Amino acid sequence: MTIHHRPIGERIDWLQDLARRHTAEFRSPEAYLARERYQAKHPTAIVVLKCMDGRINIPVATGTPPGIIQPFRNLGGMFDLGWPHLGEVLASHVHRMVAGGRRVLIFITYHFSRGDVARGCAGFHYDTEAALAHTRTIKRQAEHIFGTGHATVYPIICGFETDEDALLIHGKNGEVIDLAAISKAQAGSLGPRLTALCPDLPEQMREDLLRLMYGNLEWIAQVRTTSRLLDIEHREWMICLGQGFDFLHTPNLALIVGPYSPDLADPIGQAAGIIEANMQAGRIPDDGFLLLASVPYEDIGVDRARAELKSRFLAGFAGEVIRTRFPSLADRMFTQTAVLSWRSRALEILPTH
Length: 353
What we know:
Elements (H helix, E strand, L loop, with lengths): L7 H19 L2 H13 L3 E7 L6 H5 L6 E6 L9 H16 L4 E9 L15 H19 L6 E9 L4 E5 L5 E3 L11 H8 L5 H21 L14 E5 L11 E4 L7 H16 L8 E9 L4 H24 L1 H4 L2 E9 L5 E3 L4
Parallel strand pairs: 1-2, 1-3, 3-4, 7-8, 7-9, 9-10
Antiparallel strand pairs: 4-5, 5-6, 10-11
């Protein structure tokens, strides 16, 4: 029996064990040194704007050590850089990276399935063209904020095909490098092709993007040797609200909602609708689902105390949305609040009040 079909109590226990194992791995000397070595060789900072769909795991799909890529998640990858909180958080992150002498590559992603339209992005009602059009809007906003010269911050549109976890890199003139269509023998041509696709991409950023692309080719080859029918269907049984969910590296566990939109009720309601549909279709048991709020903190004391309050607020807000819109589903809701140490990735479940 897969974890998706176990009783809700067992699923929650399994999740907490997964978080503990992720923390232990992240804090290990080997993992720490791997991150240090990677950033020394590939100094470009990577930011990913992506959907809350748990299948979209860019570090795994590119063979990148955990903790390197900074994710921003929301329903369908729908963002507006004019949102006050999102704009401030993104600008602050970019400023920290640039102040440390690093350039920043911003992946603006959409996702779809080649095998079945219904396995695509529910946030855009499975309309890939609409999702792609939205990424173009975000790219223009990023250029408005960070400039069109692209010497320091380079926003790039990137598709993610969830059947094979393949990246599609979009260029300036509408051309695309679809890594699912690149054979092992053609891998050596990626450098010149990327240069032609993005001629204004600075050299170091091009080399660091190429590393991600080569990693994706290796992952695609691995995916093609396995059966993934269950891994590419929606079977989420968790709604995660906040940040710090890197430990959820198993596909289709969770719908992750970042705390960025001024209207958090909409993505929370959409996520709850997906959970209810999963139960009704028999993809997950109908005995319960988990609502998990997590807020990271950098320092102990005031910063951690603030994170506790924010986590409890998010959980309370989301719970009220679900009770109002899906009262029968709310009866099967298990709620947990947590804070996460950003330095150690240790997730601490807070006691209930």
